[in-house]
Amino acid sequence: MIIGIDGGGTRTRAALADLDGAIRARGEAGTSNPLAHGVAAAQRELETAVARAFAQAGLPRTRVDALCMGLGGASQAREQQALAAWARAQLAERVVVVHDGEIALAAGAPDNWGVAVIAGTGSLQWGRHRAGNTARAGGWGYLMGDEGSAYDMARQALRAATQSADGRGEKTALLAAILDFWKLAVPAELVAQVYRAGMTPQALAQLAPVAARCAAQGDAVALRLFDDAADVLARGVAAVQRALEFEDAEFPLALTGGFLLGVELYREKFLRALTQRGCRCAPLALVHEPALGAVRLARAMLFSDA
């Protein structure tokens, strides 16, 4: 059997498949980002997701033939090596650890080349040329980047709301909507809410749908935030396109992440921004289950080693 794992910024999903790639069962756990929470914490969530997949399948837990993990925060060699060694000892005979952009592209691009865009809790644009060379933009994490992500939208919405509250910025429905979401009485209570212990990027990112509702209702400030977020994602795709020398040719585009897939207004603005930047993307795939790309990569590894 084969396991494909998608470890995003919010949750970990494992897909248990047979050697033909047919999915037998799925399991879910919390985030397994090794940089954000440490390798040991990532291992616990990975173990939980795999165990739940076996339980759903009604099968006894056993080592599988091949496993691919696509993890946010696993692009560094040290974390990759640590998780691969653990997985070979605990989960599978053959193991490969990649970052989440690779499995998104494998799930959404017919021939596993093109550009993948992730906008969930974090964000990343990553691409592969037919010749095998790769390029990326973004993926710097919430302190240095993650522009266009749910976390970044939440941060920008909070800034707009607080600037509105003290008269530095334009009036916006974001202020009342955020206060209502957190059940706060006055803007001053935002300080304790945001800076309290335990306020993680994942928790803050829950404000992104609040901003989306304000934008859908026509709030000018919220609409501008989504225009800006769409443009920054499109700039990342254009940078990857240049690096891979796609030039004016069409290239496959795979989109994933709960924020980009779940907010239609955002996705439409992003696709419009791509067109404005001259990116010609075809085919376009909405990847709702990146773990299927991990299954594809695990199968490829297994049969290439055979």
Radius of gyration: 20 Å
Number of helices: 14
Question: What is the number of beta strands?
Answer: 10
Q: What fold name stands as the CATH topology of the largest domain?
A: Nucleotidyltransferase, domain 5
Which homologous superfamily in CATH is the superfamily of the largest domain? ATPase, nucleotide binding domain
- End-to-end gap: 14 Å
Which class do the helix and strand fractions yield?
alpha/beta
Quaternary status of these chains?
A: single chain
Beta content comes to: 15-25%
Tell me briefly what this model is.
The protein is of the alpha/beta class and 306 residues long.
Task: Write out key terms for the chains shown.
5-stranded mixed β-sheet; globular; 2 domains; single chain; alpha/beta; Nucleotidyltransferase, domain 5; 306 residues; 14 helices
Task: Describe the model.
The protein is globular and about 60 Å long. It has two domains: 2-98, Nucleotidyltransferase, domain 5, CATH 3.30.420; 111-287, Nucleotidyltransferase, domain 5, CATH 3.30.420.40. The strands form two sheets. Strands 3-2-1-4-5 form a five-stranded mixed sheet. The chain has a five-stranded mixed sheet with strand order 8-7-6-9-10, with helices on both faces. With 306 residues, the chain is α/β, with parallel strands linked by helices. Strand 7 and strand 8 (134-138) form a beta hairpin. The chain has 14 helices and ten strands. Helix 4 (100-108) crosses helix 14, helix 6 (150-165) crosses helix 7 and helix 11 crosses helix 13. The two termini are 14 Å apart. Helix content is 49%, strand content 21%.
